[in-house]
Amino acid sequence: MAENRMKVQLVRSMHGRLKTHQACVRGLGLRRMHQIVEVEDTPATRGMVNKVQYMVRVLGDG
Q: How does it assemble (predicted)?
């Protein structure tokens, strides 16, 4: 069974952001600026991306 995946890139710094937003970014697996991670495309990860949409860029399907 194929899983839906999406690539997410951190494009803005986490410094000075709300703790909940920092937690969402870390929960997505992002640690450094311009790092790209591949995550499952689920409602939970979509919600995390939507919460920090000003800090990340969705690059598309993996």
A: Part of the 50S ribosomal subunit.
What number of other Cβ atoms are within 10 A of residue 15's Cβ? 6
Structural domains of the chain ordered from first start: 5-61 (3.30.1390.20)
CA distances from 40 to 2, 13, 44, 45, 47 (A): 11, 23, 9, 7, 12
**Segment 6-58, tens digit of pLDDT:** 999 999 999 999 999 999 999 999 999 999 999 999 999 999 999 999 999 99
What secondary structure letter does DSSP report for 32?
Answer: S
* Helix residue spans in 1-62 (DSSP H): 19-27, 43-51
